[in-house]
Structure formats: structure tokens, C-alpha cells
Sequence to fold (165 residues):
Amino acid sequence: MYFGAFPAADWPLVIAAWTAADLLRLAEDEPRVDLVLHRDGALSATVRGARVTAPAADPQRPLADVIRAGMWYTELARSTTVDTAPPTTPALTDGHYVWTALTVTVHSELEGSLFGTPASQWWRDGVPRLRAVLATPRHRPPDGHRVHVTDETTGETAVLQGRRP
Fold:
């Protein structure tokens, strides 16, 4: 797996950035993800107004599986759940199943043995460290996209926005 030049202590934050980026790609109405760094080391991310598509030629799968399929890094978690609301039946448009106006929440409990630091330390100074991850060209959100991050332990919040370098 490739985490770039980030030290192992920042790998959970890189996974948080990947999660936010994947959900931002689904954002249709408002390019914003709400990201929570939980005190137990888990992370949650939510996007509203999401649009998800899947080729109709493929067997129809549950919506959560369609979303999870693009998130290879969920293999680095003990568990990852994907919740969607409202429950909908997809439309069939131009050979694709299409779900729209969704709220999608991903909750991951990361696998601690992979990072070499205890879960209680993953989010220490999490907001400024995540800001540094999202400032790199590889992880920077597109212009106008926002990540609202909350550190559950400290209560610190920030809006991290994509900007051109």
C-alpha cells in the first residue's frame, strides 16, 4: 500500500482523506463531506445529495456494496459499514442503475495492528494534521469542495477546502 511520504502515525489520517475524497466524488448537490474522528480511533464520513451509478450489465448489487467497491482501503479496517438513506430503488438510465438524492455514511473501525501506534493517538492534533494531508497535491480536494472535520475527543472543528496550489 502507498501512503506517500507520510509517517505511519499519519496513515489513519490518509485513510480519512481517501474516505472523504471518495464521498466527495458522489456529491452532486453540495460538494461537502462531514468527517468525524472518533475518540476510539474509528472514523465516520457523511455526504448528502449523493448520486451513485452502476452498469446495468452487471448483476444488481446492494447499494452499499456498489459504494464500498471503490474503497479498496476498507481492507485496512476491522469493519466498515456503509449506510444510505432514503432506501430507494434505482432508476435505469442509459444502461446504468442510478440512485440520487442519497445521504451516504461510511463508518470504519481501522485495524490498529497495521499502524504501529495505539488508536488513542491516531487523531492527536488530528485537525491540523489532516489539514496538512489535504494540502498535498495527491489528497487536495477539488476547488469548491469542503471537508468539515470534527475531532470528537477535543471538540475541535474546521472546514478544509480545496484550493489550487
User: Anything to note?
Assistant: The first strand starts at residue 32 and ends at 37.
